[in-house]
Write a structure and sequence with these properties.
It contains one helix and four strands. With about 90 residues, it is α+β, with helices and mostly antiparallel strands. It has one domain (about 5-80). The chain is globular and about 45 Å long.
Length: about 90
Amino acid sequence: MCTYLTELAEIQGSGKGAAGYLPLTTAMVCVDHPQHAPFEHTVNIDFLNPAMGPSARVAVELTEESALALIDAIRAALAAAPPGLASAPQS
């Protein structure tokens, strides 16, 4: 069953798309049918820069277990680094 619920987050970073690296400004997350992964449903994450058009996108389709493992890995990596090391510069 698709939830049709989409979560958006403003982000700062870069991703590598078909044309090379691009600045990313938005992350869009939903649980839905994948386009490519061989599963009925996946956690779909699109990293986007809407100002650059529809091709400015990096897409990821993960199983629920993989998405949760990614969350844990991100939290562990951040916990192991000095606080603020990967933060955006303060103006």
